[in-house]
Fold:
Amino acid sequence: MTALPKTRPERGDAMDEFLGRIGWQGAVRRMLAGDASFRRYERVHLGNSIAVLMDAPPPWEDVRPFIAVTDVLARCGVTVPNILAADEEQGFLLLEDLGDLSFTRLLRAEPPRERELYLAATDALTSIHAASVANTEALARAIPPYDMAVYLREAGLFAEWFLPQIHGLARARELREEYLDIWKKILTTTAPKQSCIVHRDYHADNLFWLSEREGHRAVGMIDYQDALWGDPAYDLASLLEDARRDVADTTVADCFARYVTAIGEDAHAFAARYSVIAAQRNAKIIGIFARLCVRDGKAHYLDYLPRVWGHFTNDISHPLLAPLKAFVDANVPMEWRGVFNANLDIGGITP
Structure:
């Protein structure tokens, strides 16, 4: 099979052709954002009409999961962009514009609003949980499961892309087996639930404040195409243990208490699963950011590692994660727990 290029194709002509077919001929396109994937977003203007064009080039990306999850989340009573037009084969979607006020941007300008915004985002998660409980049978069929295989595949990125930077590929392969065995035992003991739609990328950059809407509907969300059917603790951990910004301890405590109370869980049991799931997520992020640097040439992602390591270190202090903490202490020197000088000649391990 031919390897795919590492750089995304230029698709300006194809974008204009798509816009022409759907009645947006002559629309002005302006770059809006890119992300760690091959997706790119542009804001398009035609007269007084404004929308967002998602460019998700096949075969690197697939817009169909985004379309499917948009429908599911809309039925959960949360705010997602309306899909105005789609070309699934070409990988184009024209979306409702949720504006420029991401939580990240708004909180840079108005830091005192953090608690207000994060509580609203927590309430949106509560709405997703309530809809998941009310429609478990249908939704569990519609959304793929967040099962042991997925947890291990994601956690494995830490060993496959980060550990080789410290130990080299041969030793990292040996350590990977020990590391994954530890995770298997932890996850078997903890038994994360499969009871809720999990956004999987629920953080300040992907949440938008729509002040004209009421309650949790003021929280607009994007980048949920990888949603799975999993544990309600995951998205709360994603929100509160953000790789890109610090969240005040008081905000974390208030959101945690509000969510646990709303979904009717035992706080102690939920906290245990939260620690395990947050640790798994942060281990995954460390591996992904190492991969983005080494494989994709996106070294700036390493700048987030001190914060991610802070979260990860706190997570693995939970007694359930003692074996993982021992592994990390034995194999990751303190000077590697943050920004490191990547050796681009060392790749990753192929599982």
The chain has two domains: 12-95, 103-336. The longest strand covers residues 28-34.
